[in-house]
């Protein structure tokens, strides 16, 4: 760097490391105390006999894990967590791709459409879910009413949307999809707009039609952003307990129980902090996997 | 190889506004390198994109190889295009980039390798087939873009300012490569640029455009030596042609035709046999008051104003080879002149070329 | 693109419109439904044979009135707003300097710390809520709104740092150098030069933090039991019920009132969040 009189040498926090550390310290404190420590505590509790109300803590080894692994509720919850997440993501990927293609080119009223489409994501989870609970009510469901009106279903023999195990599972997946499609769509739109206009034009001149351009050019180019959307979507579904808690409370008969909702039911409602902690620890492998994949995407992502 | 023709081609983007392209009719010659030259906004890129099929004309027809192609998609027109950014598919290797048009047009996979290697060989990028675009330099990317264009053996090549993204040094060698490429392949090529040096160097003919209209079509010599209007006259040539006005006439003369009188009279040492002819014929004397000079190594540029006479005070530029040793200090006045046959005359209101007017010029 | 054949174009357009109508309808329908239910008389609402799409009896403000006068809805809104404001303040105070120091920290450490911060965002509340419930109890904050005031910043700070880091990095260092040549200290340059320029980034953090507070469910449900101290996101689904009977009319009104304004504001800033999600990973 050329030396000119009066100009300070290269700047950087490294020049004033103390100031940098001071500015950074409070956030480290927050993160360590409210994320790091609880995480360690969760591990600790899982190996203990902690309960709400009692202040004692004794080491019990793998006892908690043994008992929850034998519990059918846990096995159902584990299976449900995986099934719900995968099903929801599959649906979301397809729908958000289709929707982002439809929203890509400007048209009259696009702003309003965007606002309406985003509502499921921007509204608080619990409130949207309780709206669905009313829509899926066993007696007063509007879906039932429409089906009856079209004579697909006999009146008074309404499907129990939230009361029959398979329908309940489908309902939970539906609400997750409903929430995530807007989020994914917006990310896809950002991804699409990052593709230079000349690439699809070059593809058109090269002779590629709509489908070839979409699947062989656009989607592969969007792969990094798509991955980010999918990975976030997986986290949002896999670690969510709100939808299940409000919609079905895990029922009927644990058929919609997921790991987080079971952890809550056991740990807080059931006062068994240790078992609850042990259950919630099963979230960790998936989180680690997702974190690893996200870092991989970050390394390989670029747009030429 | 085919001939591209446009008939009364017009493109209007917004109702009621001046069109981007206005009533353009032109026809290429087979195998020629035709340049669309103009400043930004002149409509040259829009014109190219309409020929490619990426924009729909508002009115008029486009013909390729004698066939009206207005309703045909880009793919069906058998054209190939190289974009300003090259538009290489970043997630595909060079091989797959070049093979993509073949795949898209249903050419059997067994034939791909042969054709790709032929195209790559033509451009000398055979070693790069396994690389991805982000690993290539600017010049290499241009070659890949050309290979991808030629692998389909198109009837027409369209190039949209492919050199403008390269840095100056690379531009010269890339330009030379394009010229050699055209010579070896011989396909009719339309090339869009705003750089008049590129246009002059590469074009067999140049279409000079401004505000969506064609101002002149001609060989480089024609548009440079006999510009059809004041726009063409000043757009080509750097420094631009001197234009001085008098009544309803604009008189133009190029800086390199504006010398000290001593040179014209043959009294100064001018070791320049090529310019012998310029010293013939009657000349118009114009005195120049020099304001400043630029010494560019091989030539000198003098900026100043005409002193006295009909054009007193008008700013002009002179350009001479450095081999002419004439001292021109700022503020000094010298006797300069222009040979009469180098004067061009333009109508003041329309800008169009008119017949020569006799003097007096003093 | 110029396309051949008018018929194909028309079919494409029809498909385009159908897709938009389908998705817009499916996604926005629940809110439309909330709107209807909020103003329908109970008799109308709870009669199975009635067409649910229209008002068979004239609409009523009873549910809304009930919501505002007979329930703690207003109180929940107040709690949420208060908590939101405090959490936003804490987040800004902590995340802005942290993001700045990280952004200016060149070299591998800056990169690594940035990634580490982002990864902490991936640790969900459903993993930490059990140990945190004990911590909150130990601190004596059980059932108080300050329990969540304490814990929510741990959710807002990581993402805010990540978002602001990108922002600060795009501000040229020369600006601060010029300020320091003019006589400011490094911290002064930060305060008087960098912060004012970054208003839009800071605003994004404000909106994000606030909406996160309104959206949160698990922690509020776990730490706060008494109805009067609850947040609106938990209060509405849990407390607008007597025994097993839901007050659907008021419930729907509450949902609508609580969702729409937040939704509206969030919508305005959505592009920036997406940039925060994606620009971070697509460097």
- CATH class of the largest domain in chain C, named Mainly Alpha
Give the proportion of residues in helices of chain B. Answer: 10-25%
The CATH homologous superfamily of the largest domain in chain C is named: MetI-like
Largest sheet of chain B: 6 strands, mixed
Strand percentage of chain C lies at under 5%
CATH topology of the largest domain in chain C: MetI-like fold
Number of domains of chain B: 2
CATH superfamily of the largest domain in chain B: P-loop containing nucleotide triphosphate hydrolases
User: In terms of per-residue confidence, which ranges of chain C show pLDDT below 50 for 5 or more consecutive residues?
Assistant: none
Q: Determine the most extensive contact between two protein chains.
A: A-C, 107 and 100 residues
Give the C-level CATH assignment of the largest domain in chain B: Alpha Beta
**CATH architecture label of the largest domain in chain B:** 3-Layer(aba) Sandwich
N- to C-terminal separation of chain C?
31 Å
Main β-sheet, spatial strand arrangement of chain C: 1-2
Q: What is the arithmetic mean of pLDDT of chain B?
A: 86
3D architecture notes:
The complex is a heterotrimer of chains A (304), B (362) and C (283). With 304 residues, chain A is mainly α. Chain A has a domain at 72-132 and 165-300: MetI-like (MetI-like fold, Orthogonal Bundle), CATH 1.10.3720. Chain A has helices at residues 17-46, 63-70, 72-104, 110-122, 125-135, 142-149, 165-193, 198-206, 210-238, 242-247, 259-269, 273-281, 283-300. The radius of gyration of chain A is 25 Å and the shape is globular. Chain A starts with 16 loop residues before the first helix and ends with a helix. Chain B has 362 residues and is an alpha+beta fold. Chain B has two domains: 4-225, Rossmann fold; 241-354, OB fold (Dihydrolipoamide Acetyltransferase, E2P), CATH 2.40.50.140. Chain B is 25% helix and 30% strand. In chain B, helix 3 (109-123) packs across helix 4. The radius of gyration of chain B is 24 Å and the shape is elongated. The model of chain B has no long low-confidence stretch (mean pLDDT 86). With 283 residues, chain C is mainly α. In chain C, helix 8 (153-169) packs antiparallel against helix 11 (199-215). The model of chain C has no long low-confidence stretch (mean pLDDT 83). Classes of the chains: A mainly alpha (304), B alpha+beta (362), C mainly alpha (283). At the A-C interface, helix 1, helix 3, helix 4, helix 5 and helix 7 of A face helix 1, helix 4, helix 5, helix 6 and helix 8 of C.
């Amino acid at each position: 760097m050329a030396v000119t009189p009066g100009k300070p040498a290269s700047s950087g926090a490294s020049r004033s490391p103390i100031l940098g550390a001071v500015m950074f310290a409070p956030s480290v404190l927050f993160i360590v105390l409210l994320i790091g420590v609880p995480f360690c505590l969760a591990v600790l509790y899982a190996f203990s006999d902690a309960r709400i109300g009692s202040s004692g803590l004794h080491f019990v080894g793998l006892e908690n894990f043994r008992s929850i692994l034998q519990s059918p509720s846990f096995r159902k919850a584990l299976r449900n967590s995986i099934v719900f997440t995968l099903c929801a993501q599959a649906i979301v990927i397809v729908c958000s791709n289709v929707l982002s293609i439809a929203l890509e080119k400007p048209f009259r009223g696009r702003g309003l459409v965007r606002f309406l489409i985003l509502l499921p994501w921007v509204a608080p989870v619990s409130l949207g879910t309780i709206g669905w609970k009313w829509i899926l009510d066993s007696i007063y469901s509007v879906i039932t009413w429409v089906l009856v009106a079209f004579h697909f279903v006999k009146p008074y023999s309404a499907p129990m949307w939230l009361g029959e195990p398979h329908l309940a599972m489908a309902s939970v997946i539906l609400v997750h999809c409903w929430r995530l499609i807007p989020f994914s769509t917006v990310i896809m739109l950002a991804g699409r707009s990052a593709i230079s206009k000349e690439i699809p034009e070059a593809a058109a001149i090269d002779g590629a039609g709509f489908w070839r351009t979409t699947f062989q050019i656009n989607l592969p180019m969007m792969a990094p952003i798509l991955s980010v959307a999918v990975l976030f979507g997986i986290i949002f579904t896999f670690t969510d307990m709100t939808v299940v808690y409000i919609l079905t409370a895990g029922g009927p008969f644990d058929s919609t129980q997921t790991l987080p909702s079971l952890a809550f039911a056991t740990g807080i409602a059931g006062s068994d902090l240790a078992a609850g902690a042990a259950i919630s620890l099963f979230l960790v492998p998936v989180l680690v996997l997702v974190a690893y994949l996200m870092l991989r995407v970050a390394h390989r992502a670029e747009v030429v | 190889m085919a001939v591209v023709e446009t008939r009364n081609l017009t493109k209007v983007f917004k109702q009621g506004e001046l069109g981007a392209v206005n009533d353009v009719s032109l026809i290429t010659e087979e195998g020629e390198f035709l340049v669309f030259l103009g400043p930004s906004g002149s409509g040259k890129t829009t014109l190219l994109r309409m020929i490619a099929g990426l924009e729909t004309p508002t009115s008029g027809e486009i013909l390729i190889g004698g066939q009206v192609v207005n309703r045909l998609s880009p793919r069906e027109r058998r054209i190939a295009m190289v974009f300003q950014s090259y538009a290489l598919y970043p997630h595909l290797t060079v091989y797959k980039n070049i093979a993509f048009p073949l795949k898209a047009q249903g050419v059997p996979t067994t034939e791909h390798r042969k054709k790709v290697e032929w195209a790559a060989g033509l451009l000398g990028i055979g070693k790069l087939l396994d690389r991805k675009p982000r690993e290539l330099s600017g010049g290499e990317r241009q070659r890949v873009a050309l290979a991808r264009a030629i692998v389909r053996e198109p009837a027409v090549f369209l190039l949209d300012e492919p050199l403008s993204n390269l840095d100056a040094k690379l531009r010269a060698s890339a330009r030379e490569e394009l010229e050699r490429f055209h010579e070896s392949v011989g396909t009719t090529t339309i090339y869009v640029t705003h750089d008049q040096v590129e246009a002059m160097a590469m074009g067999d003919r140049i279409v000079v455009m401004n505000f969506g209209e064609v101002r002149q079509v001609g060989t480089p010599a024609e548009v440079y030596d006999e510009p059809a209007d004041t726009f063409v006259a000043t757009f080509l040539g750097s420094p631009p042609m001197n234009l001085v006005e008098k009544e309803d006439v604009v008189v133009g003369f190029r800086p390199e035709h504006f010398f000290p009188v001593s040179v014209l009279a043959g009294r100064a040492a001018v070791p320049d046999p090529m310019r012998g002819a310029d010293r013939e014929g009657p000349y118009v004397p114009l005195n120049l008051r020099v304001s400043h000079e630029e010494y560019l190594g091989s030539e000198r540029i003098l900026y100043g104003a005409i002193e006295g006479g009909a054009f007193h005070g008008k700013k002009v530029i002179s350009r001479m080879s450095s081999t002419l040793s004439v001292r021109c200090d700022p503020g000094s006045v010298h006797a300069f002149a222009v040979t009469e046959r180098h004067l061009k005359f333009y109508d003041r209101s329309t800008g169009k070329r008119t017949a020569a007017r006799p003097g007096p010029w003093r | 693109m110029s396309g051949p054949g008018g018929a194909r174009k028309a079919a494409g357009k029809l498909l385009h419109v159908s897709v938009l109508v389908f998705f817009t309808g499916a996604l926005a329908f629940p809110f439309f439904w909330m709107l209807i239910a909020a103003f329908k008389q109970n008799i109308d609402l709870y009669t199975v044979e009635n067409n649910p799409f229209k008002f068979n009896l004239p609409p009523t403000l009873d549910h809304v009135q009930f919501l505002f006068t007979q329930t703690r809805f207003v109180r929940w809104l107040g709690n949420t707003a208060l908590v939101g404001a405090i959490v936003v303040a804490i987040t800004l105070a902590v995340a802005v300097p942290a993001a700045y120091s990280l952004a200016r920290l060149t070299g591998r450490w800056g990169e690594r710390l940035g990634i580490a911060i982002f990864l902490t965002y991936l640790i969900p509340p459903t993993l930490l809520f059990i140990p945190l419930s004990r911590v909150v109890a130990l601190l004596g904050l059980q059932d108080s709104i300050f329990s969540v005031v304490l814990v929510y910043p741990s959710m807002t700070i990581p993402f805010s740092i990540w978002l602001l880091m990108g922002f600060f990095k795009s501000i040229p260092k020369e600006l601060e150098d010029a300020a320091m040549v003019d006589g400011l200290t490094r911290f002064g340059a930060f305060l008087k030069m960098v912060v004012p320029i970054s208003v839009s980034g800071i605003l994004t953090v404000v909106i994000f933090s606030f909406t996160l507070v309104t959206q949160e469910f698990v922690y509020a449900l776990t730490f706060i039991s008494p109805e009067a101290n609850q947040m609106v996101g938990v209060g509405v689904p849990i407390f607008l019920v007597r025994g097993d009977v839901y007050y659907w009319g008021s419930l729907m009104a509450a949902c609508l009132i609580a969702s729409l304004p937040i939704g509206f504001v969030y919508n305005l800033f959505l592009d920036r969040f997406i940039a925060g999600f994606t620009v971070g990973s697509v460097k």
